[in-house]
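INPUT
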Amino acid sequence: MGACIELRGLSRRYGQRLAVENLTLSVAAGELLALVGESGCGKTTALKMINRLVEPSAGRVLLDGIDVTRGPAHQLRRRIGYAFQRIGLFPHMTVAENVGITPSLLGHDPARIRTRVDELLALVELDAGDVRDRMPAELSGGQQQRVGVARALAAAPDVLLLDEPFGALDPLTRDRLRTSFHAIHRRLSLTSILVSHDMSEALLLADRIAVMRAGALVQVGTPSQVLCEPADDYVRGMLETPMRESRQLTGLLEQANPASAAGAR
Amino acid sequence: MSEQLALLPAYLTGHLQITLLALLLATIVSVPLGIAATRIAWLERVALTMTSAIQTIPGLALLAVMVPLLAALGLPSIGYLPAIVGLTLYALLPILRNTATGIEGVDPSLIDAARGVGMTPRQQLLRVEIPLAAPVIVAGIRTATVWTVGMATLATPVGAISLGNYIFSGLQTRNLAAVLIGSAASAALALVLDGLVRMVETGVRRRRRPLVAAGGALAALLYGYAALAALPALHRERTIVIGAKPFTEQLVLAEILSVWIGQQTHRSTRILPALGSTVAFDALKAGEVDVYVDYSGTLWTTILRGAELPQRREQLLEQMRARLRSEHGVTLAAALGFENAYVLAIRESEAALRDIARISDLKPLAPTMSMGADYEFFSRPEWRRLQELYGLRFAAQRTMDPSLLYPAAARGDVDVVTAYSSDGRLETARLRVLEDDLAAIPPYDAVILVGGQLAERDPEVLRALAALENGIDVTTMQRMNLAVDANGYSPAQVAGNFVRGWRPRPTPRADLPSEPPGPP
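OUTPUT
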């Protein structure tokens, strides 16, 4: 079971600019929270303050009620899975070495790591026998992203932080990967925070959505709450594209096949 | 040629030793410094500025500067140490710059990933940054390797054995084969080492472990060989070190001393050729050279200084003997019996035409004449005395390389030139040496100097050297010089023959002399 996360009055200042301003938010154990907003709204900075890749200027982060600044940062990060858009697979290590990195830092024995790596590659739907000894550069973008997720999960973390992990993929791959991620999240009962600028992604995957604008929280709620009662024009604007697309698609489907469209309703 | 090739193993080994050690030291210093520079902004500026500044110093000057610098620190200032320190300093920049560039060039997302997976700063450096920067760092080592192999040829004048020994002595004795062997061997060594480092670089870049391992094993073999070759030197009974300045006469005399000492006392000797003029005396005092030949006038003006110069040969020798002993702890073992003095010479045909035999005869003619001299003559005290005593004022004064002086005089490009009295080619150059009738130029007796340590340790050697008193007259020296300069004998051959009792015979006049043996 995942840990619960609490952000209390979290701020981060870069010179004169406030990237994150007084952010207070809690995520329940096992919950999948999507943090959305346009680029530059501070969502990535907020995420990085949870695993201390960025240190807050003010405020605290509590993990299961314990302040994350207690103890060394690297030990905290070994308990928190982290996957991001640019993946960051180490190009000089094999796939297996990449996935097994955190367990090896924790000093697990090699045989145990090998078994774990194969399990994880299977979990992210990769053929372990095929990919484990290959170098990251030999894999496709989608395969690399799966390896990135497997690496984040390797040390059986309580918390998974994902920063637009599906952003750079083609739509088909992105969709498959989202589906498998959702399954993994449920199966491992992780507490996950997913940063995204794509409202449709958030609506489809998340238990709750937190919308950020210019460093501050605008609205927090379930997908249906956000969809039905957007807090302001900003949130409404963010919903506009997915809504319009879904209407257009429904319209197209009705034209092509009125019966099935009607049946679906 | 085969005599030259026989020296190749020793020179190549010496070259390899100083190159490899300098590269190792430069890597040990530069890689951590380069890494630290990426963490500390001011350090990067300071380190790069300083190593770049070192690079702007010409290689020969950097090595030469090490001699007085190390001597001031009380360290051995001749031989391997100045060479290795100089080469190491020179090799710092490429390795430092590439290390900093390589570390800074690591993709920031990989740094994020390294931190994100829970690496400590140390693990991040060792597991991610250094492996990823390795190809760039090795490329820097490769650049340094090629530079160092080339620059190690300049280690000869500071007393380290390298392939430069071929080049320096070959240039002095006009032995083109030696120069070619030295240059070719140095180029070949550079190519081989470059190939070796490139192998490692390719292996690191393409992550081919066998290639890296093979390159590393070959490098380890080379280091092992260089270290093993250095071992006997540590245990060897102390050899007597004979110094020589970089011109023919000095090389011949050094060889004569070497053969003579070997024959008379069965001590082993080693020659350090091509030492700079003042380097030789300093090295003698410091005990790094045991014996060398210098000239009385030169010693008086550059080392003893001060007092008025005695104009008579015996008088000067007597005073010098006492002062060298009391002020510098150096023993004057013997005066060889000939002088290598500065003389003024003029084309024979012109001298006959205008009836010029003495320097005094020049005075009325000088304002219509030009004079050529080697690089240092016009700034030496001898020239000031010549001007004062004879009232000489030439229409033009030109400085040129010693090798160009005689041809220039023969062609009539200049009227009067400086020459050296023991130069073998003076006899064949159709030049008339003018009598120094007012005794402006001091005596330049060739004298054997012995350092304090050897004199104390081994009086037998001192006695053997003293037996050379008046052993070489000026004609003999001229002919020995000529045998090397014009007739293609090596200094060692001439010296061997001399000690065996052979005296060179006069050689037929050559049309144009090519190069005098150098300044006293």
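end of record. The first strand of chain A starts at residue 5 and ends at 14.
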